[in-house]
What does this fold into?
Amino acid sequence: MGLPAFVPAAFTAALLWACTALPVPQPKAAEPVGGQFPVRLDYGTSCGIAGLRESTLRRVNAARAAARSCGRRQMQPAPPLEWDDALFSAAARHSQDMARRDYFNHASPDGKRVGARLLAEGYRWRSVGENIAGGDRSVETVVRGWMDSAGHCANIMNAEFTEIGLACVERKGSTWGTYWTMVLGRPR
It folds into this structure.
């Protein structure tokens, strides 16, 4: 469903939730299930978007290549990010959960946050951040909205992060229609 066509893009960007960047903790690895970590999801072309992975890397790495202002914070260029399947799987699971249970938050209704979701994927992280969005129909519009938001922009430009995963899950009849999750991380 998404937002009505008459809602201006600036209003849509203002509706995006602030990103979450966590400090550097010393997490324990997730407990294996049946001797192995849980099977990772593979949504392929999330929300029916062909080339989601390539488009994400192209747009985000182009943004990171130049210095920019994220609100009042001046950010220096950052090295390009690499795609990581565990980050993608954590992002896909969170987007799927938000769509299925029709909520929009960094924390799931049972209180799980991005760090715990990554550990459940077997990703031992040193630093992690998350951006979420709802209602966007393309990688271009979701990344543009995040770059226009100070907190989301700072997360994308954070040179501490080396890897990325992004997913979009669509659910007709839900509040937002599309649920986007971007997870940025640096492994230990």
